[in-house]
Specification:
Layout: H1 4-31, H2 34-57, H3 60-63, H4 69-81, H5 88-104
Helix pairs in contact: 1-2, 1-4, 4-5
Length: about 110
């Protein structure tokens, strides 16, 4: 049987893949770079498969909130790779997401 920690890890990895997929899509459509667009779509596909596998063995109400970490991943990646500005309110929002997801796991 797959443990809840393993399922949580799988979904967290899926959230990270989703964040990276969004970065590739943004770069691809901004610069009309077809390989990045397809890479983004492929990463979304891998994340979807992983999340589907996790759902088979876990509870939706526990696993789905972990996907919210993708918002934090996009925030970090867009600041680093797209030079987008990150404000104090963005950081506060990220902390609220972490607290919210943590509470759903108790």
């Amino acid at each position: 049987m797959i443990t809840s920690y393993t399922l949580t890890f799988i979904v967290f990895v899926c959230a990270c893949l989703g964040s990276l997929a969004q970065l590739f899509l943004k770069q691809g459509v901004t610069h009309l770079h077809i390989i990045k667009i397809f890479s983004g779509v492929a990463l979304y596909g891998v994340a979807f498969i992983g999340f589907t596998i996790a759902l088979r063995f876990g509870e939706l109400s526990k696993l789905y909130p972990i996907i919210a970490f993708s918002y934090i991943g996009v925030l970090i990646l867009s600041a680093i790779y797209l030079n987008e500005s990150v404000t104090l309110i963005n950081y506060i929002g990220a902390v609220v997401i972490v607290l919210g997801v943590t509470l759903t796991q108790l």
